[in-house]
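Reviewer comment 2.1 asked that we show a complete input and output for one of the modelled complexes. We chose the DAU case, as it is the one discussed in the main text.
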Amino acid sequence: MTILVTGGAGFIGGNFVLDWIAGCDEPVVNLDKLTYAGNLETLASLQGHPRHTFVQGDIGDRALVERLLAQHQPRAVINFAAESHVDRSIHGPGDFIETNIVGTYKLLEAVRGYWSGLPLGEDRAQGRAPAQDSFRFLHVSTDEVYGSLSPADPAFAETNRYEPNSPYSASKAASDHLVRAWHHTYGLPVLTTNCSNNYGPYHFPEKLIPLMIVNALTGKPLPVYGDGMQIRDWLYVKDHCSAIRRVLQAGRLGETYNVGGWNEKPNIEIVKTVCALLDELRPKADGSSYAAQISYVTDRPGHDRRYAIDARKIERELGWKPAETFESGIRKTVQWYLDNPEWVANVQSGAYREWVSKQYEGSAA
Ligand code: NAD
Ligand code: DAU
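Response of the prediction step:
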């Protein structure tokens, strides 16, 4: 059996593919468009690996997706592919509509065609193809679809109303609704996860935590939006990956699962924690703290004030729990960026990205 992962050259998809290949014998077909956020450098350790097939392409390219499904006969499709950065969605929402909404729709249609042609369990030739009833489409989504919480509100439960506020979260909310509709209308066996803010290795340095690490080390300002008291709920990326594996294995069809680590923190506390770790692990020559680089800047338009995940459903039904505390995860993360300056330099270099895509051209299916 095989799984098809989309967006597997990005931050979470890349971590997922690396963990999957390391943890089991099942092959992965990895479909990724390689936008600025997709980096083959993240998958460098898998180059030439017999169980990893990388294909550069768009989830919205129905003919390509149909061909990959027919060729590889996956037992599951896990959809990570998306435009993921809120600030970019404010400056230019078009790509978010195109990939997150239209792309998800086209992917769902290709998958529905493939799934409806699969044999029923009792007709299945032994080991040849997955059966219709065991196939899964797992859609990876975000807590941002629920909108913003006030300080006294309880954390987001799966029953909360969708109230997306940014072009990014609205596009993800729309994709969640499409996935839900393809289950209710056509019976497609879907699962959806809605996760809080991830952090960890291979995080593109435009997001808060890696941006602060990279800017601190290069002597640049650390831009904190508004008063820095917005709250996010942080989860180490490997814990998100383990939650997705668990939902894929045992999640109830058509259900959504909120994923989070009960780690609510104001942004300014995150930035100060990163600075303190860098002070310890890479002290500045003049003895000053990296915190001196903090600079309060104009707030993000429509900035959601607080996110918090109530993770009791996935804990209760599927027995999932995160392995990292915030303290252990953030230390590992800062250390990873200190140990991998080439990765940062490479993902920030457009010329490098073009070159690396050429290296992989021959391996595309
Ligand atoms: P990312 O931006 O790091 O990676 C996205 C990947 O998708 C990239 O490799 C990109 O090249 C690829 N991609 C984009 N458009 C594509 C298309 N049309 N066809 C094929 N590939 C395409 O994002 P991420 O942070 O890894 O997020 C992955 C998923 O998890 C997204 O769906 C996101 O909404 C969701 N999510 C992210 C977080 C988080 O904190 N980062 C939290 C919860 C949910
Ligand atoms: O909640 C899950 C979401 O988390 C995911 O769905 C998104 O894909 C992911 O990007 C993330 O969205 P955020 O907007 O919360 O992440 P970001 O890292 O952009 O910002 C985190 C917080 O830090 C947010 O309150 C904005 C603030 N911020 C961000 C940047 C980049 C700053 O104060 N300064 C910055 O320079």
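The chain has one domain: 3-358. We note this here for comparison with the apo prediction described in Section 3.2.
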